[in-house]
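Researcher: Here's a chain I'd like modeled. Treat it as a single chain, no partners, no ligands.
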Amino acid sequence: MFACAFAFGTIFALTFLSSYVAGFQYTDAALLDQVTDMPGLTWKPSFNQFSGYLNLEGTQKFIHYWLVEAETETMDAPLVFWTNGGPGCSGLLGFMTEQGPFRPDADGNIQPNSYAWNKIANMVFLEQPVGVGFSYSDNKDDYRIGDKQAAQDNLATILAFFEKFPHFNHTALYITSESYGGHYMPTWADAIMKYNDAQEYSQERINFKGFAVGNPYTDYYSGVGAQMETYWGKQLLPKPLWDTYVANGCTDPIQMFNNSVCSVLLLDFNKKIGNLNPYALDYPVCLTAQQRTMHKLLFEESSDLVYEPCEDNYATDYLNKMDVKTAIHVKSDIVWEECSRTTKYKLADKLVPMEHYYTTILNSKTHPDLRVLVYSGDDDGVCGTIGTQRWIYDLGFSVESLWDTWYNDDGQTAGYVTKFNTPLSKDSRFYFMTVHFAGHEVPTYKPKEALQLFEKYIYNTI
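Model: Modeled as a single isolated chain. Structure tokens:
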């Protein structure tokens, strides 16, 4: 499949003798961050990659980024920033287990991802806010953060990135996320727009084109409430208990949060579903090494199995290897975790609804071409599709086309798409797409369909 393949354990040294790579003249700071080898990589990538820190201006905050350039047409491809949710979960989860170009395996080797999003875009994976992953600050107070400061820091991260990679300054830019990205995306977009509006000259503006967010945690109900309704909808709960839940008004967010009967039922419901994966209810969970060995002895493994339930573990093991930390230019004394226990996120912000941002963003006369995609894997329990449907039709945008089927390359139903009429343009700039049988992290569970969805959004062909 690949032009250059070597035995396991071989490490490529991708060195460059000039500051010109792929037609760009890179800054010295960028070249210091170039990833020239990756432990466990047994094939030669067709793209350049850079990893290091972005120091936010006027602060002691250092945000870890990992840029993988587009496989083709790098100079013309858009620039897309990706962060995971949480709040406080690492963007390298997206890199290593979702839509990045690499997938670690149980042996510490790196396998290619055939459905990586950098096939069509320059992807920048961020570990934000400080305290997440390899990102850090020399000021302990910086680890206390909320939505407002996170949005300002994410804006500052873009500006710091442009300082290091100025050739991207005027490239079409998108921001993407999932889960608590339902808070990150609209607040970050709002910060970018306000920054642009404050610039005196148009060339100083960020060429911002919009955002895409998957299975978004938009308000309190879109998390906990939607989770319970999804459990019931999939018939994972007994009717007598569900009837009690409804009779006590637990489908109302205020009751759910304050009613002691609802609180007891919520705990019981989570016990009732057993060890199912709430992020992907119909997918297997990660077993111990002993359980996996026994499973292989008893059952024939499917040769076309894509989903690896233990991939998060493999990513954690890989990113904590000392030679990996050296290769990606991060602090060696930081123990990488999927989600931070250092960052102290403002709990009250999790209760703040985000719906009003959509109205503000899509009605902006200074940004009339922004496009917004909300997508949802319908096998997710944590931020179930039913939660998004509960708010997205009530934003005030009339429906242009309702629940049309979209198909994957094999002609199978990939999901459904609704397009909304939006002001300032004759064509829709606001879309809601579902991905059938995908879990919370859509690219993890349905990588082919996720890439198709991303292509439709980027190329404006939804």
